[in-house]
Design goal:
The structure is a homodimer. Helices cover about 45% and strands about 15% of the residues of chain A. Chain A is α/β, with parallel strands linked by helices and about 270 residues long. Chains A and B meet through helix 3, helix 4, strand 3, helix 5 and helix 6 of A and helix 3, helix 4, strand 3, helix 5 and helix 6 of B.
């Protein structure tokens, strides 16, 4: 999917909500556990109930790999279900990969070509040749970690490199890479006060913003400095939406939570 | 496996060789492609021919994920084959994972518990709470990227943070994390001149050293500064060994390459 198509979908739905699909068997509604494929049934119900309120879904790959073969099968079924039934939806493989060139190339093929995701998250530590193989794939995005929402972000990301925080060096350096127009960045909502600084370096790029809700970030704060003329934000909520209820009404409960965020977004977009 | 058991295996085999299992269908011996499971057949033949010459195998997870379900199945079959037939062998899931705590916890379970690897590689960018869930698992190791073998290592890893290179800050900081005794570090052989500096910070820790052979690193240089009283090195070779021949003799050819490295290591250990 191109950036223009994503923006058009956002304007149409008046939403820049991304829903994280992090299915955890311990948290799934109990009545689903008896079905043959509880994780896929869960994802399918959540997607069917919320697809008109969000523009993107973000399966967190760890939550599938932990179930081995069966988990990988659920991941395939989920992305296929999305691509077949809701082709307008933007999809993000939250994988945080990154390795030497020929290995990154394999990950890029796996997520962007074979599975058919629109984008994949990557880690910057190994530099240019670990990210460029992802960027090389046409009409796909690579979403690189810049400033994350967790406490550990302060261990290295905000440390100063020649008087400039590491995450700023990461942002600046990445702009010089080949096909850098395909880059988006992960910036945590719990670090809202940093958005103004980040927008000085990447005034146009889309930012994927986790940490609204369960992790404590605030939507208004993020939008105040993060929003651009072309929106430029995908705000993710996972647990706050998908685990809104553990009962048979879980999908409706998820839709209610999503609707609340979408309404807030619609007001902001005005 | 404990560090002591690994050291004992190294002393017994007079080898600190790790063989990377990066199976690429485009590079596999042609006669294997007709078999039902060419990747597993390839791995099995390589393992059977080389297990007495090395102490560890390191499947690179990207090379399995790129084949989807079938690839994941091959990964499971490979680690099961190793654990059942060669329980003395140390196994490394080269996955370079790292995410917020609850996600890292899922990856840790996937690779160290469910699949049963002895260790997994992780990326440090997200800091303490992204790595500690891996460190929490008993008698397993977490192998964190410090200074990698690729060109992109110079983008961020060698940049100075308060007059100290980032990779040094990563090494120093990680020593303060809970269960840091379970840490090993990735240090590329192409950066041999840095080993002396690294040993000042982590005098005892095991270093996993990729980049000998195909990537141009030199074993003598690495050992000169990297070797400790308890060896402290696992030197990896992937392509130089497993793709030594594309013919029916591929496993023997791999063993010859492995034997050459093992012999060199035996001389160094004296």
């Amino acid at each position: 999917m191109t950036t223009a198509e994503l923006i058009s979908q956002i304007n149409q739905k008046k939403s820049f909500l991304c829903i994280g699909l992090d299915p955890d068997l311990d948290k799934l509604p109990t009545h689903l556990l008896a079905s043959e494929n509880p994780i896929f049934e869960f994802n399918k119900a959540i997607i069917d109930a919320t697809h008109h309120l969000c523009v993107a879904y973000k399966p967190n790959i760890a939550f599938y790999e932990v179930y081995g073969l069966k988990g990988w099968q659920c991941l395939e079924k989920t992305i296929n279900y999305l691509n077949e039934n809701y082709p307008e939806i933007y999809t993000i493989a939250d994988a945080k990969r990154g390795d030497i060139g020929n290995t990154s190339n394999m990950y890029a093929r796996a997520f962007l070509e074979d599975l058919g995701f629109d984008s994949v998250t990557v880690a910057p530590y190994m530099g240019k040749d670990s990210v460029e193989p992802f960027l090389a794939i046409k009409d796909k995005h690579t979403i690189m970690l810049a400033l994350t929402s967790n406490e550990g972000a302060f261990d290295f990301q905000t440390q100063k490199v020649d008087n400039k925080e590491l995450y700023k060096l990461v942002l600046e350096t990445s702009k010089t890479w080949e096909n850098s127009q395909n880059l988006m960045y992960v910036v945590g909502a719990t670090k809202a006060e940093y958005f103004a600084e980040i927008r000085k370096i990447v005034p146009e790029a889309f930012l994927l913003v986790p940490g609204v809700g369960a992790q404590g970030g605030n939507l208004q704060d993020v939008c105040k400095y993060g929003l651009t003329e072309n929106i430029g934000l995908l705000v993710n909520s996972s647990r706050g939406i998908i685990y809104a209820s553990k009962n048979e009404d879980f999908a409706n409960a998820a839709a209610l939570q999503a609707k609340e965020l979408q309404t807030e977004m619609e007001a902001i977009l005005k």
